[in-house]
Amino acid sequence: MNFLKKFLIRNFIKKVNWVNFRNTKPVSPIFGLDRGTPIDRYYIEKFLSNSRGYIKGTVLEISENTYSKKFGNNVIEYDILHYDNSNKDATIIGDLTKIETLPANKIDCFICTQTFNFIYDFKSAVKGSYHLLKKKGVLLATLGGISQISKYDMERWGDYWRFTTKSAQNIFSEIFGSQNVKIDFWGNVLSAVSFLEGISAEELTEKELEYKDDSYQMLITVVAKKV
């Protein structure tokens, strides 16, 4: 985490009163974006950093290619998937739930962060992700576990689901095969409560953020390989 950013946040953002959370309003209603890095983004970037070895060849993201460029290794083509023509940077116009709109066997690595929660027919979207991948291609996905509702998404296309390691293991195994799927999680009671309150990652220590308690699964991670 950037030291200067962390220093500025800890010294100039209004301090959280950790003693008393008896309040019906959160510290920040926008996931802590106004205070620093949202905690789920901290976990997403740790997951992708740990998965750098898969992010190569033809790499696909939803709506933008920020993570492909940040974590990519020997990337030869950056693709962007969008559901309509409104995104001028999109290279693939298609709907994950409609395989007929997607190219087959094109992608080496599909980075799909915090997307399946907002797709009602998420099982079809997982099938669409499989369809996009080349043989030996890899899907790197993150799913929301413990989280507030995203009003932005709810008002536009819907905020439908929250996942656990068990539900993720079942659905991705159905499509990719259980031996080709690795499910993990990030989170603990402190990071989960902090995320719901809108406290930023910079306001917790690395030790606090990275302690794992499987009763408080804040973010689910998926590595699924097409064989």
Computed over alpha carbons, the radius of gyration is: 18 Å
Structural class given helices, strands, pairing? alpha/beta
Count of DSSP-assigned helices: 8
Global shape: globular
The percent range for helix content is 25-40%
Distance between the termini: 36 Å
Q: Give the beta-strand count.
A: 7
Question: On the 0-100 scale, what is the average pLDDT?
Answer: 95
Strand order of the largest sheet: 3-2-1-4-5-7-6
Which percent range describes the beta-strand content? 15-25%
Low-confidence sequence ranges: none
Could you explain how this protein is built, in words?
With 227 residues, the chain is an alpha/beta fold. The protein has eight helices and seven strands. The protein has a seven-stranded mixed sheet, with helices on both faces. Strand 1 (57-62), helix 3 and strand 2 (75-82) form a beta-alpha-beta unit. Helix 4 crosses helix 6. It is globular and about 55 Å long.
Briefly, what is this?
With 227 residues, the chain is an alpha/beta fold.
List keywords for this structure.
single chain, 227 residues, alpha/beta, seven-stranded mixed beta sheet, 8 helices
Give the SSE layout:
Blueprint: H1 3-12, H2 39-50, E1 57-62, H3 66-71, E2 75-82, E3 92-93, E4 107-113, H4 122-132, E5 133-144, H5 151-156, H6 165-176, E6 181-186, H7 189-197, H8 206-210, E7 219-225
Parallel strand pairs: 1-2, 1-4, 2-3, 4-5
Antiparallel strand pairs: 5-7, 6-7
